[in-house]
Amino acid sequence: MEYYLQLFINGLVVGSIYSLVALGFVIIYKATKVVNFAQGELVMVGAYMCFSLTVQFHIPFIWAFFMTLGFSVLLGLLIEKMVLRPLIGEEHISVIMVTVGMSSVLKSLVQLFWGTQIRVYPQVLPTEPIVIAGLPVAPVYIAAFILSAVLFAIFSVFFKYSRTGVAMRATAFDQQAAQSMGIGIKNIFAMSWCIACIVSAVGGVILGNINGINSQIGHLGLKVFPAVILGGLDSLLGAALGGLIIGVLENVCDGAARQLLGLGGFREVAAFIILVIILMIKPYGLFGTKEIERV
Amino acid sequence: MRVGKLITAVCIMLVAGLMLVGCGGEEKAAETAKDASPIKVGGLIDLSGPTSSVGRPYSEGVKAGVQYINEQGGIDGRQIAFDLQDTAYNVQQGLSLYKKMVNTDKVVCIQGYGSAVTEALIRNLAKDKVPDFSASYSAHLTDPKKAPYNFFIAADYSTQLRAALKYFHSNWKEARAPKLAFVYPDHPYGLAPIKGGKEYAKELGFDIVGEANVSLKAIDATTELLPLKELAPDFCWIGGTTPSTSVILKSAKNIGMTDTVFFSNIWGSDENLPKLAGDDANGSYSNQAAAVYGQDVPGMKVIEKLTDGKPQMTHFMRGFASVLVMAEGMKRAAANGPITGEAIKTSLETLRDFDTMGLTPLISYFPDDHRPNMAVFIYTIKDGKLTFVKEEILERRADWLGH
Amino acid sequence: MQGKCGLFFTSYKGEAQIFQSGFQKVMICLLILALCAAPFALDIYMTSVMNLIFIAVIGAVSLNLLTGVCGQISLGHGAFIGVGAYAAGQCTLNGVPFPIAILVAGLITAMVGMVFGIPSLRLKGIYLAIATLAAQLVLEYVFLHGGVLTGGSNGLLLEPPMILGFSFDTEAKMYFLLFFFAAASLLMVSNIMRSKYGRAFVSIRDFYLSAEIVGVNLFWYKLVAFGVSSFLAGVAGGLWGHYTGYISAEQFNIGLSISYLAMIIIGGLGSVIGSVFGAIFIVLLPEVLNAIANGLGAFFPDIANSIVALREGVFGLVLILFLIFEPEGLAHRWRLVKAYWKLYPFAH
User: Fold this and answer.
1) Å between C201 CA and nearest CA of chain B
2) How far apart are the CA of A183 and the nearest CA of chain B, in angstroms?
């Protein structure tokens, strides 16, 4: 039993990384209804930018962090203007494929500028593990958990109470009505991409602290899909909780599969099998808004 | 409309360009008779993609090896013309490049790399009679009945595991049987040596207490290692690559598995491991098949000169040695007639205890056994550096061939 | 139908023809003759590229049927091709003759495809895409852990195809076999598109609510789309497995699904000729890039390193550029070019 409790805590801890990435994903979907297959690569670019500033230019970490956020804003603006704006109004598959194309471009740009070798990240957090319920947890994971909670709180407040946040929700709901109310949707799109890039950069810095960076860490973007589907594509709370739940479920399923069925490596697919089951029962996730079709 | 015209024009130019490229395929290959024309060697190495972090240093080593051989006068007066292409971990790409190299460029030998492409090429290599030096050390590539034209210069993964087991067992001082656990990814590379390793471990008298699966892409291994911690193994095999080995070592240290000695596969530990895992890497062992930069072996002087004293990863040394072995095969083939793929293969099978300037253990190939040697360099990480411990040599047992 | 002035039909059969004017019929015969003569004129490498194009055409046209004509986004095509490869491989390894093995592979893949098409009952658009992504990953796991059935981590080694004792072990012989299958699959999809099923698929894609009102059973037709598309994917997989001689779980990953999606997007969603163009484009893209890199490498040796890193980026960039500037793909461009020549010097 203690084993499963430890699995649970470890799941929460790893799941907070998924939550961080999922937050960025949901922010984009919430404002623009675009499913971003390049989310993992945005995380990777954020991690590499911070690495570059800290290690190659020897800027103190705090300043490098804020400069990374600045660069992320620029990246978000660039992506929105060059790639997404021409595709406003196109069908789903085109938008999906354009984000897929973007992920390839980002991956190869990173390889071009920073090479293919594994890079070691500057360790900014203490390395002594903190013990929770008998399970040692590295501080970087605690930081991830706290950061995703803080970011979730900030953005929930932003989307609910601030003018811009409400404008973003309105744009996502009905672009034409929003435009007729005087909301400049191009600015809204740009802002949502910038915010998502910022959140991804934070996630990237955390990820880099865990095990260094290489050009393949973008695959985390695929892992995020079960989390956002479980939570609901347009729900921030869903993203935060979904990441945690998927982290826990992955661990539990993996442990159960090994003990009961003797299957190894089940955790890679466990999340996706859960995904399919959720999709069949509750397609809009736990907290997503139901799409009502009017004939 | 302007954009449309532009696209139309581009498409027409592409098609025209393609036709030109296609027509260019009529050039005939250089004669391989006794003359000074270059010997064509093809390189199919992952320079981009998931394994490129080790593929790049490996390819640099291969290029340096070719440069060295050419500077020494080449083979029988002929220079090696090395054409390096990127397979990007994509089998279709690798196959296509291979077909171009063998049919259009008429290469006589290939320096290969990863298991995905190497496995796909086994049949083609045998049919086209072109030997391939891969960096994939799978055991079944050593059986000439299955893979007659495949060679590699490091002991295969299963032999490496067995050699490490023998080393630890011979140094085991206590009366009880040592406890052993296996940690490996759910991937062909990780699964390959496990069966052979378990059999030999039982033969030596290890007590196999458990195993765990840690993916190559994992960022945390705590949950997989917790059950193993309860079983308290004395030794634990890690069959991953450097990033996953680092994750395992760090997680193990976190949960307090400090009495376990971890030992990893050849790709699981290199100069990056101490950087990634920090102090947690100290005390771990690994199998290597090539010297570390700066080590005191005759070949190191040559490499230091070629690289202007810039440190290289151990994969560089392995790529370099791979070319040295290939060149020896070509030299012996040249002594008997024209250098063709088949001639190179037959000459390679006459190598007995060939010395790659001390960079790797001695290499011998036999017509019925393509295992280069039964030796492995055991290294440990001390103070953040790869430190040589011992060269462990096993006997060349026939029942171990191919798995 | 953009036919020439004066082309009109006096029977339904005439209107439903695939090649409607005499000129088209002559051109297609010439094309077939040229393709049949090609292996004797091209060297082995170019023939092998043509073989890869034929296999890609079968895969692309099947995905186009599902995604382009019926509107069901599928990210699992690579895995379905893998199912076909393994099924065909297991059949031939157990002594089943090659043509039957291909048929069986197609049928097994069709069944698997229909199972994974069941979510389409409740899911649309992006949710269906994600469900098929799950299918891709689950099937990849099954390939790796299939034990004896899939050879697990070692993969399967296959023999070249053999029909009635005649072994297709050279590129030129495989060329004709693959040409036959590619032509057959193109014909099959064209015929489906001009039949009742094809019209139902198009109605589901465009106005599914109206289609349901009119009496099209959405679930049944979607399942059929998944089934037929997977059947052809299985055939493509079986051919691929026997052509390369070795199949492993790593070959049928998400990258393969994405490259097939890229093929139909670049070629043109919903058109058969678009699938052909897309397949040719995507298969030739790495070859062209290599040629350019080698050519430039002769002048600027350092560029070679950078170009290597860029190959994947160029793929992504090409995809993005096509989506921005030519969203309807090469098929649309082809139609415009044809119209221009047909109506020269008049604009209409």
Assistant:
1) 30
2) 32
B119 and C144: CB-CB below 8 Å?
no
Token pair for B287: 């199998």
Task: Tell me the C-alpha distance between C328 and C192, whole Å.
Answer: 21
Q: Are C319 and C266 in contact (CB under 8 A)?
A: yes
Length of chain B: 403
Q: In this complex, is the C-beta atom of C326 within 8 Å of any C-beta atom belonging to chain B?
A: yes
Contact (CB<8Å) C127/A98 = no
The ipTM (two decimal places) reads 0.88
Output the six-digit token pair for B272: 């990056």
What the block records as the tokens of B284 is 């771990």
CB within 8 Å of chain A, chain B residues 307-336: none
Residue C193 lies in a domain: yes
- In this prediction, residue C32 carries a pLDDT of 94
What H or E segment, with its residue span, contains residue A277? helix A267-281
- Residue B364 sits at φ, ψ, to 5 deg, of -135, 140
CA distance to A198, B361, C129, C326, per residue, from A21 (Å): 11, 47, 20, 32
How far is Cα A55 from Cα A70, in angstroms, rounded to an integer? 18
Domains of chain B (ranges, CATH numbers): 39-155+294-372 (3.40.50.2300), 157-288+379-400 (3.40.50.2300)
CA–CA gap between residue C323 and residue B12 (Å, rounded): 20
B186–A contact, CB cutoff 8 A = yes
- Mean pLDDT on B69-87: 89
B50 touches chain C (CB under 8 A): no
3-state secondary structure (DSSP) of residue B296: coil
Question: Residue A31 in contact with residue A168, Cβ under 8 Å?
Answer: yes
Report the distance separating Cα B118 and Cα B135, nearest Å.
9
User: Taken in order B27, B29, B35, B40, is the CA torsion positive or negative?
Assistant: positive
Q: Is the pLDDT of residue B384 over 90?
A: no
Q: What is the pLDDT of residue C168?
A: 86
Most confident of the following: B61-75, B268-282, C299-313: B61-75
Q: CB contact, 8 Å: A139 with chain B?
A: no
Q: Around B358, how many Cα atoms within 13 Å sit in the side-chain half-sphere?
A: 12
State which residues of chain C have pLDDT below 50.
1
| Alpha-helical segments (H) within chain C | 12-15, 22-41, 44-63, 77-93, 98-117, 125-144, 171-193, 196-206, 208-214, 218-244, 254-267, 272-299, 303-325, 329-343
CB contact under 8 A, A279 and C119: yes
Total count of domains within chain C? 1
Range of the domain at C192: 46-253
> Is residue C5 domain-resident?
no
Identify the burial level of A86 via C-beta atoms within 10 angstroms of its C-beta, where 0-12 means exposed, 13-18 middle and 19 or more buried: middle
Task: Compute the distance between CA of residue A164 and CA of residue C244 in angstroms, rounded to an integer.
Answer: 56
Please answer whether residues A247 and A13 qualify as being in contact, where contact means their C-beta atoms are separated by less than 8 angstroms: yes
